[in-house]
Amino acid sequence: MTLSSTSPTADARTPGPRPAVPRPAEPGRLRTVLSRYGARLIIGVLLALYGVVSLYPFLWMVSAAFKNQIEVVRGGHLIPHHPTFDTLVNTWNQLHFFRYFVNSIEVTAMTVGLTLVVYAAAGYAFAVLDFPGRGALQKMFVALLFVPGITVMLPIVLLENKLSILGTHIGLVLPFVNGGAPLSILLLTGAFSAVPRELREAARVDGANEFHIFTRIYLPLAQPALITVGLLTVIPTWNEYLLTSVSLNDPSTYTLPLGLQTLASESVPHYNSLMAGALIVVVPVVLLFLSLQRYFVNGLVGAVKG
Amino acid sequence: MTTAPRPALTEAAAAGRGKDPRPAGTGRLGRAPRPRRRGYESLSGYLFVAPAVVLFLVMGLYTVGYGFLLSFATWNGFSPSWTWVGLQNYKDLLWANPMYAPQVQKAAIHTFYVMVAVPLLTVLVSFPLAILLNSAKRFQGVLRSIYFVPYVTSGIAVFFAWTYILQPDGAVNSLLSTLGLGSLSQPQGWLGNPHTALPTMIVVTVWGAVPVSMLLYLTGLQTVDRNLLEAAQLDGAGWWRTNASVVWPLLRPITAIVVLLNLRDSLQGFQTFLVMTNGGPGDHTNVLGLEAYTLAFLKDLAPTLGLASALGWLLFAAALVIALINLRMLRSRT
Known about the structure:
Chain A is mainly α. Chain A has two domains: 8-14 and 24-86, no CATH class; 93-305, MetI-like (MetI-like fold), CATH 1.10.3720.10. Chain A has helices spanning 8-13, 26-65, 69-74, 86-94, 97-128, 134-143, 149-162, 169-179, 181-193, 197-205, 210-221, 223-239, 242-247, 256-264, 271-305. By secondary structure, chain B is mostly helical. Chain B folds into two domains: 21-84, no CATH class; 93-333, MetI-like (MetI-like fold, Orthogonal Bundle), CATH 1.10.3720. Chain B is built from 15 helices and two strands. In chain B, strands 1-2 form a two-stranded antiparallel ribbon. The radius of gyration of chain B is 26 Å and the shape is globular. The two termini of chain B are 42 Å apart. Classes of the chains: A mainly alpha (306), B mainly alpha (334).
């Protein structure tokens, strides 16, 4: 079967007669209809197939998390024959996962909070205020995008050791916030630039100072961009493993990824409890993404246009 | 003020823009003869950027400078002083030291494979995927969410899941057997066989890179002028021709961004490799980022910190060159 010359999408989106195209004879028309359905079927199958590819490791993670030790070793089947919550419960209890969970939330919340405060202010200055050196500063932050993480990781660890904040959560938060600077500034500057200047002028006439204009006018109007930046910060921070693993020593400060690593470095890794741990790490951030995803998509569209 | 209905405001903004196309510069000129207000604006500008700049000076500039100096010294992290060695670290890494140079060269070759394969495959998967998804009428939102799961879960948790299904008795091998392709299955596991380990890692990396790239293409597709596509179809161009000869060239800037992002990540990223193979089997999946990480953090008392910094700077230089070439190409094409 060949894809006919009339695109299925164009047809669907432009209903009504198109006089420029001569109407085909009946048999040809039937073929067009058939191939249109055929094309849609192929598109549907391909899209579904990639959906399975996207979810594949995730599906097996869920599957193993609900299997017991015997069943996970036997392997082979996706749907557990004897689904059990014991694996999840035991994994949660076994490794102070609650402690790690709280730590992860603490680090992520501080990182997101600080990112939003610091870069909303900076984005406002770059977008709205006029001051000498603005362009140079802005370029400097974008250039940061090209400094490899590994280049600065060692100096950060050495510096924090000197400042005695190595191994603390604040010692993680500060480099995380700084690492998110380029993207956050880019998105927030774009959002603030889109706010009509007339609003600012009007507020000034009414006697509002710069801080009031920022908090009462610009921040509420940039809410979607703030959520986008927050989400773009939450995801990598929640999953961060590299700097965390070389920074934290005391198990009581561990975040979820480190807890998971502890689970994996047992002499014989039990894949059911490892996958249960992985599920505990992944589920909160998936839920958060699903509930806020429209902001994410729109925010990225804004970033591309800008 | 905070509860002001946003749609009305945006409409007002649109209307305002419509009837008053005066550029922002005019407003600035109008303000010029009032120096006191300018001073106030500059001052508040500096106050607003101050926290970001301070953080950057400490966590960014200081660390970068420190790392740059360290790349010209040897140090084990504990002894009280550095020993200055000039460019020796760079020479050792590139050719001089028989202990490090061959390893670095091999890691460079692996990194090169990853840098060629990952951007190429990511574009080859995400561009058609975006086209197909854009033409889907139902389930578009649901599918987009599903395609985004790899990005959201990207991290140590999902890499362990990959390790699990790539085991000798894992899901990938049993899927191949079920499909009657048992001869393709890997009895040593996909990461255990030296010949399949690096290609497997490339596939996992592409899997993680497709979501953002696909979304970038999708947003690009939504800006393509539909009249242009209809014109192409009226001229007799089929579905394939339209996408290959009209849409693909129009989205070239997006391709440039996708390639740049993936080149950068392939050059610098090593987390997947650290978690899934740690460079193994042997050193068949060792990449430059992982080599730098090993030199920096896993050599205990050996004085390799200068070497690690030097390697980090070589990576930085490479990233900069790639970014400049990419930007140049982007400019010349548009």
